[in-house]
Structures are given as C-alpha cells and as structure tokens.
Amino acid sequence: MRAAYINEFGPSRSIRFGELPDPRPGVHDVLVDVDVTTANHVDTFIRSGAVNEPVEFPFVVGRDLVGRVAAVGEGVTGFEVGQRVWCNSLGHGGRQGAAAERAVVPAERLYRLPDGAAPETAVTLLHPAATAYLGLVTHGGLRAGTTVVVVGAAGNVGAAIVTIAAGAGARVVAVAHERDTAYCRALGADVVVDRRGDDLSTRLSRATPEGVDLYLDAAGVNDLATAVGLLAWRGRIVLLAGLHTTPSLPIGPLYVQDRSIVGFAITRATDRELAKAAHCVNGLLTDGRLRPREVHTLPLSATAEAHRMLEAGELHGRRVALTTA
What we know:
Helix content: 25-40%
Order of helices and strands: EEEHEEEEEHEHEHEHEHEHEHEHE
Radius of gyration: 20 Å
Oligomer: single chain
Strand content: 25-35%
Distance between the termini: 13 Å
Structural class: alpha/beta
C-alpha cells in the first residue's frame, strides 16, 4: 500500500511517501480501506517528537480517517465489510497512523459514519469536535445555563466548542477577530468580543457580569492572569492548547474562590470517553450544525505539504482533506 510515513522524528520534510506492507488486523481489530484523512496540529507534535509517544519506525503519520471496512478480526462484532466508518485516534499509543491506503483500527475506536455525511467534510471535523466535547463535557462539566468563554472561537476547535456549548443551552461569549463576528454568531455565540486591543479583560468582564463558569482557550494563548480573574465561584479553566506556553498563575484569586484549572489532551482519552465524544460528533455530522469554513483537498502524497502549511500558519481556519483516490 502507499502511505505517508517517517523513519525518524523531524520536520515536515522528513515525511516520506511510498510503499509499505499492508497492515494485518488482529483478533479485535478492523482493517479499513481509507478514503480520506487529514492533518491536525497534534499530528505535527508526534511527527516532530515534541510529545513522548511510543513509535515504531517506519511510522505512518495521522490520526483521523474516513473509509470502508475491508475485513474484521475474529473477535469483532458490530461491523461488516463495506460499511463506511471513521476513526480519530490512530497514530499514537503504539498504533500506526491513518495516512495510508489501508489502516488497522481497534474495534473499540471505530465508529460508523452517518448516512449522507460527506467523507471530505466529515474527516476535517472529527478531531476538533471530539476535542471540544471532551473539553466542555468530560473535563468541563458543561451544563445548561452556564456562561462559557471561548478564546479562538473562529478556529476549528473553537468553532466546535461554540457550537456544542450553544447547543447545550450555555451562554457563549466568543473571543475572535472582529471580521469573524457574523460567523461566531451563526455558530450560536450570544456575544462576540474582538480579541484585539489592550482592554480585553475589561470588555470580557462587562460581557460576563456574573462571572465565567467555563473558560477555554482554543488559540493556545493561555492568559491565565486574565482568565482566573473572570471566573465565577467554582469556575473552571480547561487547558487544551498552547503546548509551549508558560503563563503566570495568580494563586490567591484561584483558590480563595474555589476556582480550578484542568488540562487534558485527546491523546490520553479513554475508549469510553472517546465513544461518548463520537456520539456527539455523529450528531453534529447528521444535523449539519458544524461545518468547516473551507476544505482544501490534496492527494495523500501531499501529506508533508499539509504538515508544513499547518506549522507555517497558512491555513487560517481552512482544513485539509488528503484523499487516497
């Protein structure tokens, strides 16, 4: 099969494209013919060695795919050859990645693609939407009526956070560029605050007079000095981006108001947590509430270029779909 892979950790140009042996599914695995995959920032972290993950070289990169079941292991139930399926947790934890014509997926991490969902669109939403669900619900304890601030609300993960929070009945305050105001409102934001300007803290305070219950920064700025001061009693900050940021933390205002900070990475999510997130993702794919702003389609052979574009900041809200066709 053809695949995008690395023989050592390194920059985007270290990704090779060529023939590798077809993978063989184990007893509890499913072999998938991959139609389309994509590239996320977390894929660049693993490819570069920035995060400590067990990797066996040659290592196929990528974690998300949409494809069709080619074969099932003897211990697998619930999947049949020809079914269209998706996965968003390959390429880490000792598993080879998704950027190949065929991939082996543990059955407990594979989900059926809803009827009518376009593969090139769906694959770009799997990681952002699951990340948003885990941040809001699993780690944030989202409830109806809470006030949620989303920094980077017009980005891929930020847009998913806004959509899910609004759908759950939260009051959503989006922080984004002024040009993205209409987009954020269309996603369900009640208030949009321009991220530019030195008085952001003041403007956010005015927009949240009773305090913030959940604060998520999808842009990875992680201005905790501002965020902690905005929190309501027992408000929570969920950290999910900004791998190399080192913010200052005002300890007093954090603990005297029972406020808290929790961090998570989707890479560490359990099978049960991923399954709950997948249920939410499939709901979004079915009702069409969340769609990428623009999908840039490239052949699988352009995986290295997709990684380069991500790291160079050239996509600006666009997503890349890498097709095997």
